[in-house]
Amino acid sequence: MAKATTAYVCQECGASTAQWSGKCPGCLAWNTLAEEVTSKSGPEKPSAGGKVVALQTLDAEVPDAPRISSGLAELDRVIGGGLVPGSAILVGGDPGIGKSTLLLQAAAALANSGQTAIYFSGEEATAQVRLRAERLGIASAPVGLGAETGLAHILKTLGERKPAPDLVIIDSIQTLWSDQLESAPGTVSQVRACAQTLVRYAKRSGAAIVLVGHVTKDGQIAGPRVLEHMVDTVLYFEGDRGHQFRILRAVKNRFGPTDEIGVFEMTDRGLSEVANPSALFLAERADDVSGSCVFAGMEGSRPMLVEIQALLAPTSYATPRRSVVGWDSGRLAMTLAVLETRAGISLGADDVYLNVAGGLRINEPAADLAVAAALISAHTGAPVPMETVIFGEIGLSGEVRAVAHADQRLKEAAKLGFTSAIAPRNKRAKGAKNRKNSGIEMREISRLADLADSFQTPGKVSRLSNGAARHG
Ligand code: TYD
Ligand code: MG
């Protein structure tokens, strides 16, 4: 067998040296050399014991990947219907967001349904994990628990288990260390080497493996995304520490869609699944205030209603402030510009604060129209009617563009008791009949300039004309 040696490889340019130094001799970048294990045998030659691979065709019957339910419906939904045996999942998230809690609950649910689950904790002692399990009410679940950080010990333990466990959880990958490398646990080379070995174990044994990874300050898992390409599925667990709910989001999935989210609520007895997130996000909505409206959004295949709030205040700066939470500030700037140029509503003398209530982050352009409505409502002082939802994309020429999944958005709105919707005109609609069926009165608009009229009751218009005059 080839002898293993270590080399220091620049993570930027790939240059390799035998000795560590602070500066890469190749590209002169600082602090980019990372230790890697290499074998001395050199490049493979054609005769070096290779075998001929029997090539296949693309069209053949493919059985669906078998799935094991994790016991948490929201987790199953995000990974595409359950754990795939032999696959590797990376769960990333800020420290303290609830990754350990989520996975311990999943392990317990799985173990309770007769599968085998092993949980290796490198961050907490067994007593701590037990305490948590007790608090979560799952202490009786037959989960195999180990407090270990040595990769060799973990592999040995797993190797002894015949048959292989159904689920192995490593919490967290940053605490593991392999004695093949000299660098400290948590360094890029250690994290990568340990993950590679564990992924190989998963493929070989058929166990599904979950690696927990802490996210660094700039939002990456353990350094320069070193793990994401190695695993089959990458999930991010996110949420605002100030809010109770947590969102599990798939950002890569070899076995399913990547735009699904799962919603959980952090309670004093652990994470509970939220089957109807819209109700949660709208729970604290105030009656008839201006500057607020409800956006009928989509997260993956799931419709989600959220409240969008806007606040205007006369600016005391030369350049007015634009502050956004939960939406893209570039899109806000665009919406403000289109409002001014195409609809004659100028907010140039106001500081603008925009907030997606509840702490959710929206990425859809379909929220444009709802943002514009919140801004107009804040500007005129006329509230958007409580029972109205809004969605639609705004183009630069002031047109309101159709968005996907209109029917699903409307259905969700109807389910939550909304009775009207301001939405783009659907040119391809087979008939307005469909929409009336969902019990929603449609106010279809095709131009942004019509938006203000579509929710203002005559007589209530107060600041609009003044405002336009003031800024014009
Ligand atoms: P944890 O799962 O340890 O986070 P991570 O593994 O991502 O670092 O979650 C820690 C937080 O969750 C902690 O601040 C307390 C809170 N928590 C609850 O609110 N209720 C609970 O039942 C548990 C177990 C934790
Ligand atoms: Mg943890």
Description:
With 472 residues, the chain is an alpha/beta fold. It folds into three domains: 5-38; 73-275, Rossmann fold, CATH 3.40.50; 279-470, Ribosomal Protein S5, domain 2 (2-Layer Sandwich). The protein is built from twelve helices and 21 strands. It has helices at 73-79, 99-112, 126-136, 151-160, 188-205, 277-282, 329-343, 368-380, 406-415, 433-437, 451-455, 463-471, and strands at residues 4-10, 16-17, 33-39, 88-93, 117-121, 144-147, 167-171, 208-214, 233-239, 245-253, 261-267, 270-273, 292-299, 302-314, 322-325, 350-356, 388-390, 393-394, 400-401, 420-424, 441-445. The strands form four sheets. It has a nine-stranded mixed β-sheet. A hairpin with a 2-residue loop joins strand 13 and strand 14. The longest helix is centred in the middle third of the chain and has 18 residues, at 188-205. The chain is globular, with a radius of gyration of 27 Å. The model is unreliable at 458-472 (pLDDT under 50). Bound molecules: thymidine-5'-diphosphate and magnesium ion (MG).
Topology summary:
Elements: E1 4-10, E2 16-17, E3 33-39, H1 73-79, E4 88-93, H2 99-112, E5 117-121, H3 126-136, E6 144-147, H4 151-160, E7 167-171, H5 188-205, E8 208-214, E9 233-239, E10 245-253, E11 261-267, E12 270-273, H6 277-282, E13 292-299, E14 302-314, E15 322-325, H7 329-343, E16 350-356, H8 368-380, E17 388-390, E18 393-394, E19 400-401, H9 406-415, E20 420-424, H10 433-437, E21 441-445, H11 451-455, H12 463-471
Parallel strand pairs: 4-8, 4-9, 5-6, 5-7, 7-8, 13-17, 15-16, 17-20, 20-21
Antiparallel strand pairs: 1-2, 1-3, 9-10, 10-11, 11-12, 13-14, 14-16, 18-19
The structure holds thymidine-5'-diphosphate and magnesium ion.
Residues 99-100, 123, 171 line the site of magnesium ion (MG).
